[in-house]
Structure formats: C-alpha cells, structure tokens
Write the structure tokens for this entry.
Amino acid sequence: MFSSIFSGAVHGISSYLLQVEVDVSDGLPGFSMVGFMSGEVKEAGDRVRVALKNMGFKIPASKVTINLSPADIKKEGIIVDLPVAIGILSALGEIPEDNLKDILVLGELGLDGEVKHISGTLPIVIKAKEAGFKTVLLPKVNAREGAVIEGIKVIGISSLPEAVAYLNASERERDSLIAPTRVDIGELFRKSEYEDVNVDFSDINGQAAVKRAVEVAAAGFHHILIVGPPGSGKSMVAKRIPTILPPLSLSESLEVSTIYSVAGMLGENEALITKRPFMSPHHLITETALTGGGNIPRPGVISLAHRGVLFLDEMPEFPRSKLDLLRQPIEDRRVNIVRAKGNFTYPSDFQLVGALNPCPCGYYPDRNRCKCTPNEIRRYLGHISGPILDRIDICVEAPRVDISDLTEKTKRVNESSKTIRERVLKARQVQKERFKGTSIRFNSEMTPADIKKYCQLGFREQAFLEHAFCSMELSARAYHKILRVARTIADIDESPEIREIHLMEAVGYRMTDGKYWHQNEE
C-alpha cells in the first residue's frame, strides 16, 4: 500500500515543496524514514506512531517506509509530523488518496494528537499557491498567517482527528465542517494606525535641530548619527522615527512578515507585520544574533529590521568588529551567510540610526564637566570605524535640554508625528517620480553619476559648495553626501532646485562629524 502527500519546508528564507511518500508493505515489522534528513527530523517517526496510537489508529505489524523528497536537500529543522501521519493513514486506507489531491499539509504533532504551531508558514503557503495547490491544511494558530495569501484556501486544524475528519469529508461538506480562515488585510492596516499612540514626536520638547535632522533622514532614507550628552533625548527621538516613516505597503509587509515567520517570531494567531520594525540590540549581542546564522541559519537582528529602523544606542559600546559587520549589509541591503550546508541570503534593507555620547563620560566638549583625555576620547569614538562613518549621511548634535523647554510655563505646541510624516510622504513621492524607471528609490541611493544628473547647482550654489569643500577640507565622498542630503532638504521644501539654504543645512550635518572624528589633536 502506497500513498503520497505534499508538505513544505523552508531553506533560509526561501521555501520548497516536500513530497512525503509512504509505503506500508508485508515483511519484517519496522518503521524507517529516508531522504537525507537530520536526526531531529527522524524523531518525527516516534511522535507520529505514539500520536496515532493515542488517537485510536492502529498501525499493523508491517514494514513502514517513509521517503522525503527531494533527496538532494538535507532536511534540518523542519516539521513533517502531520503530513507523515496523514500519509500513513492514507496508505492504510483510512483516507482515500484522491481526497489528498491539490492539498498541502503542514503541522507538528503532540503525543496527544494536538497540532502545534510551526515556523515558516507564510513562505510555504506562497510557494504552495505558486505550485497550483488549492488548499493548505495547517495548525489553527498559524491559519491567519497563511490566510493573508489570496487565491488559496487555508484550513486551520487543532488535532489529528479533526484533520482526518476534514479529509474524509466530501468537497461540499468540508467548508461546513471547518470554515476556511479569512483575513481582512485592509482592517489589519487600519488597526495598526491606532497602535502606539503614546509614542509621538509631540512628546519631545526642545531639540528642534535633532527633530529636523531626523525628518530629513526619514525623507531620503539617510543613515543618521545623533551625538549628545546623557539625558538629552537621543533615544527618545530615535524610538519615534518609525512614526514618521511611510506605512508599509502590502508587498513590504509580506517581505517583513516572511522574515519573522522563518525566524519563528510571528506570534500565534498573528497574520502580518503591518508596522515598520524597530530593532534596538544591546551592545553585548553576539555576532550570530546580529547578522544571522547558527547551525540551522536563521535571520539576525539586522534582517529583522528590514524595511524599518536599526537603532544602535551607545554605539561606541559595540565592539568595532560587530559594527564592521554592518558594512556589507548597508551597502548591498542583504546578508550573505555561507555554511558548509549551503549559502543563505536574507534581506537587510534598514535605516541605521546611531546614538552616542561624545566621550566616555558623556560631557565633552564641556571641559568643566568632562575629564576625559584626548586619547580616551579618540579611542572611544574610534570604535566607529571610517568605513561605517562613510556610510552615514547625517550627523547631528543633541545638546543638553534647557530647563525652559521642560517647564509647564512654556506655552509651546510641538509638531506631531502625523504632521512630520505628511512632509516625509510628500518628499518620498517627489523621489518616486524623479527616479521612475530606474533602480533608485531614495536620494540616499544616488551614485555620483546620478548626483550629476539630479543635483545640478546654480552659479551661487556651486560657489558656496566649493568654498565649503576647500575650507572644511572635505573628501569627494563627503561632497556627494552633502548633495544627496541637500536634494532631500529641497524635496521637503518642495523646491525643484537645490538652493544655497539647502546646501547650508546639509553642510551643517557634516560639521558635527568633523567636530568629533576629524578634529585636530589637542
């Protein structure tokens, strides 16, 4: 007696279809699983046999052979319990094999027959739809996650007997037995608009220059550093950056949700990630947790920040070796992990936001409070290497907050995140129109050739920039950064041309950089 059923598995962030072939034949009783699999995958056989026994299904004293195909991919960290159990029952005649046509089965079994949560559901359902499957049978807690993919029926089940009953029912009876899970994607996005209403830029008093710099960074997708003494509000500002970024589109949401699904971080009964991620790792994080990897490679923090913000608080506290791991992901917008078992690629298109004190004690250049020596300051700031600084367009100083900005006597109404976001959205739309038909999305991605095309200056503006270039002894890279940032500032101001005032602001964001990293020795 033979049966075949399809399941799915993930390999890195991609997925593939898995065929489970079951043969029950006469011979010396035994239970074997083949198909280039690891030890933990083979353990599924023990779970399945006990679960079938506890659910009242009897396996005869026969030779049971299970093959997982394709055989050229090693099966590691995957769950095949439920498809193996269904395959055995089909081979024994408990489920007609015709009833399994166009159905893909996913799920882990408990010894009591419970169907448990699994990781990687979303990319597998996407692959199933592409392959032409009409129905996916999966754990009930994963049903909403799978149901965001339109054009395929998603059936959530909670136990093995429930799955058997569904598969044995006729086509007309199935929907009344277990209704397909449906998700209102529009409602999910509308609901996310009202979350975290307590995190808003209107909460921040003072720091107008920092808020302006953050707005420019958000509009042009520029990486940014915020330098200032302890308690100046650097972290408070950074945590509110997602509130001024454009909302995730459906395609972006699916990208982010796929990463979280593979990482096992999409919560039970959670359908999609509808808000831009904000990841803030501690400086003691391991290199593997930061970039991804492990025996069975999983996405790291920088991939979990995809389409969102990666915030490094107290940035010089991170070992230089860890910070330098960001160089390739920032440049290529992806992480490549090479293992003996294969190459794995994860997306990592994030906006880097760094916050740091200007010295170990935090009070430089206030020499009345700072007692750090020049060598101590250089060593501290030296944790941020030149190649990382070269990838950061904006560096802004967050001064100590004045008491007048904190007292209730100050009659001031701070701009809300919504107001700032509207300007960011307008600037993003300008960039979308400008770069239509190209691979560029944001001003921060312009190459020198693109800068020459899109950042043409008038005579007065060119003279100002040449003067700044010579007096500040800027590099060619800094010159291009200034023009990229100035282009974004002009877009915010709805100006087709880059004016001198835009260049002045952009040059100001380079002066903070020079103050701390390129200053002359004392």
